[in-house]
Amino acid sequence: MKLKVKKLNKDATLPTHGHPGDAGMDFYTVQDVTFPPGKQAKVHTGVAVEIPEGYAGLIWDKSSISFNFGLKVMGGVIDASYRGEIIMNLLNVTEKEVKLEKGHKIAQMLIQKFEHCDILEVDELSETVRGAGREGSTGRK
C-alpha cells in the first residue's frame, strides 16, 4: 500500500517507519510545544494524508513519549475522507512541565482496514456466557 502525504508546512517532516516491518508510522511535531503539568496540547505535524477508502488511520502513543515524558495520546481515528492537517492531541499526565522541540517524534499512526457496519435497532441481543458482565466478569481480580 502507498500512502500519499502532503506537506502543509515547508518545515514538516514526512512520517517514517523506525524499522523495516514496523506497524506504525512516526509523526513529528512541526513546532516547539510545551505541556503544562496535567494539561493537554494540540501538536501540529504540518502534513496531511490520503488514507485509502476502507481504511482508517489509528493514532497511538509512542512508547518513548509515554515512558520518558509522560505524554498520552487523546483520541485518534483519522477517516479516509479527511484531508486536513494531522494534529495530535497529547495529555501530560505528569506533575512537571514537558517541552518537545520541533522535529521530535510525537505519536504513531497505524493504517487499518475496517468493516463498515449498517446499524440495526433490535429488541433483543443473543445470549452469551458472559452476558452483560464487565470488569471482573471472569471471576479473577
Automatic annotation (TrEMBL):
Kindly name one Pfam family recorded for this protein. dUTPase
Q: Name one GO molecular function term.
A: magnesium ion binding
The UniProt keyword set, sorted, is: Hydrolase, Nucleotide metabolism
Q: What is its EC number?
A: 3.6.1.23
Which part of the chain is the dUTPase-like domain?
Answer: 11-139
Which reactions fall under this protein's catalytic activity?
A: dUTP + H2O = dUMP + diphosphate + H(+)
Q: Which InterPro entries does the annotation name?
A: dUTPase, dUTPase-like, dUTPase-like_sf, dUTPase_trimeric
Q: Does the keyword Endoplasmic reticulum apply?
A: no
Q: Which GO terms describe its biological process?
A: dUMP biosynthetic process; dUTP catabolic process
User: What positions belong to coiled-coil segments?
Assistant: none
Sequence similarity: Belongs to the dUTPase family.
Q: What is this protein called?
A: dUTP diphosphatase
